[in-house]
Design brief:
There is one protein chain. The chain has four helices and 17 strands. With 328 residues, the protein is an alpha+beta fold. Helix 1 links the parallel strand 11 and strand 12.
Length: 328
């Protein structure tokens, strides 16, 4: 039996409720998606759509197949994540004894940057840094100077110098092919990780992704040189936008969005992947959506809050829902 209304987990604390499944369409030319054999492909012709619902407190991304909820992701809009954001920071306090520097990136607390004795870092210096661990409780956010930018098929790590491949790409012939292609256009020998999504990609798709990442990095460097003081230079994509960027393929029939700003953001992302995908976008401005899933006892939308209760006893209200998962 469902708990009484109001006793479920607070939705402002729900960060991710999801399954890990991904589907990708087979390659049918350079204008299509790349992945196939390494991933499951939806071949049963079932209607599949993504619904992105922007609310004040959260953004909910629902994956529907034949009008049934198969995946749900919820991101907290009140306490926005900062991991992977890139900043211009000012070094304020160097602690050689613990090999750390405390850096002002515009937060209430100084961020923590691990350093080595060989690093040429001085108080007052401007540094380009990226958050690689969120602030937790009294602990400050943790920084790194090894900047990484993720694309659809590649991850760019300019300071690294190595080309590595996702362990999920197991076929040696494909690993060799992908590495050879990336080497052919990576003239400056920048660090690159080849993502699982790159399977079966041709040189045009990979080079296009690479060029977009280079352009993004150059813009970050340009912004770093403009002005003084702490500054946010790059904000990581929201969970919904990142999900669509990584999972859009021919199997997705429709992407429904209820917010004009979010619609334009995702439209821009899709135009860089495949302009044909823009036709899948539908704006249903200011509409609200309800979801149902057979493995859930109750999944209820109340005003602007989505309350999810499981067949198992509900968790304590203030346990972060990142630990909660339901399976298809």
């Amino acid at each position: 039996m469902c708990p009484a209304k109001g006793t479920g987990p607070e939705t402002s604390l729900l960060s991710h409720i999801h399954t890990a499944s991904e589907t990708h369409s087979p390659p049918t030319g350079s204008d299509k998606d790349c992945s196939d054999g390494e991933r499951g492909v939806n071949r049963d012709n079932k209607m599949k759509q993504i619904i992105v619902q922007s609310l004040i407190s959260s953004t909910q991304t629902a994956v529907m197949q034949d009008n049934k909820l198969i995946e749900l992701l919820i991101e907290d809009n009140i306490h926005k994540k900062t991991k992977s954001n890139i900043y211009r920071g000012i070094v304020k306090n160097i602690k050689p004894g613990i090999e750390a520097a405390f850096v002002d990136i515009g937060f209430e607390k100084m961020a923590y940057l691990p350093i080595k004795s060989s690093d040429d870092i001085k108080n007052g210096m401007e540094v380009l840094v990226q958050i690689n661990k969120e602030a937790v409780g009294t602990k400050a956010p943790r920084l790194t100077q090894e900047i990484s930018l993720s694309g659809r098929y590649l991850v760019l790590i300019p300071s690294n110098g190595r080309i590595t491949i996702s362990n999920k790409i197991s076929e040696e012939k494909e690993r060799f092919r992908l590495k050879k292609i990336v080497k052919s256009f990576n003239k400056e020998k920048l660090g690159i990780i080849i993502r699982t999504e790159a399977v079966n990609c041709d040189i045009d798709k990979l080079k296009e992704d690479f060029d977009l990442l280079i352009k993004r990095y150059q813009e970050i460097l340009k912004q770093f040189k403009l002005g003084i003081g702490p500054k946010l230079l790059y904000r990581e994509l929201d969970l919904d936008t990142k999900y669509i960027k990584d999972n859009i393929n021919e199997d997705i029939d429709k992407i429904v969005i209820n917010d004009k700003t979010k619609y334009n953001e995702i439209k821009s992302i899709l135009s860089n992947i495949n302009k044909d995908y823009i036709q899948k976008l539908v704006l249903e401005e200011n509409k609200m959506f309800k979801y149902h899933h057979p493995t859930l006892t109750k999944c209820q939308l109340d005003g602007e809050y989505l309350t999810v209760w499981f067949n198992a006893p509900p968790p304590e209200p203030r346990i972060p829902a990142v630990a909660l998962t339901f399976i298809k």
